Amino acid sequence: MTTLAETSRGKQVRVVQIIGDDSLSLRLMEMGLTPGVEVALIGLAPLGDPMEFEVRDYRLSLRRTEASRVVVEQV
Fold first, then answer.
1. pTM of the model
2. Do the strands 12-18 and 2-3 form a parallel or antiparallel pair, or are they unpaired?
3. CATH no. for residue 55?
4. d(CA 21, CA 74)
């Protein structure tokens, strides 16, 4: 298992779990990152942070520290 922060551009992954039990993990789930949803890395900022993902037909930007809280598996 890897995290969303370690995902390669263009790869399709599936969310397995959100690490943690705090307001950030709740916010990530509210933004659509729930177990079972498929996510694709679309692009990176010039210095690699933030990262842009496609989730449920919309685009979501996350910092690497936030993306590292999302455990994913390859589809």
1. 0.89
2. unpaired
3. 2.30.30.90
4. 24
